Amino acid sequence: ALCYQPFAEIGNKSLAQVYREIEKPKVKNLQRAGMIIFVYSLVFTAMVGFFATAIIPDSVRPAFYDNLISGLPMHLVGPLPARLLFQAFVVVVGFLILAGAANTWIVGSNGVLNRVSEDGVLTDWFRKPHKRFGTTYRLINLIVGLQLITILLSRGDVFVLGEAYAFGVIWSFAFNAVSVL
User: What is the SS3 assignment for 163?
Assistant: First the structure.
């Protein structure tokens, strides 16, 4: 059930990016959006667990514990090509969700590193705007490069990446707590 938590967090981080465009009353509308994200995450997690228990036979279900969503299409009734096509659809949708997550993290990291550069921790060379797009492309390239290096070093192991993510979240909370003190 915890594997869907990052999707809810991604949704909430996306809300921070579109805050300026939300119509008034902003706080009330943000609370509504947060509740929709919460309910969706709760219902989706419960539905996947319920359908996986109902559709995937007990004898083969342990093979799909790490990815029940991928196991569901393969145990539906229908011809094998249709089930493979549906599984490919599930993979593409997952890719699109994670691509949105990567974009959210790039934008968030860019904002943080811009502030760090403005404070003089990083040189002004990083903040040079792109001639055509006006973005801080050097920071964005640095962020994307570090993400790719992280994926390559972990060999794409989702569990290692999840543990690294959890480690980062814990340290982020710790540093935020210290900064409040």
Answer: helix
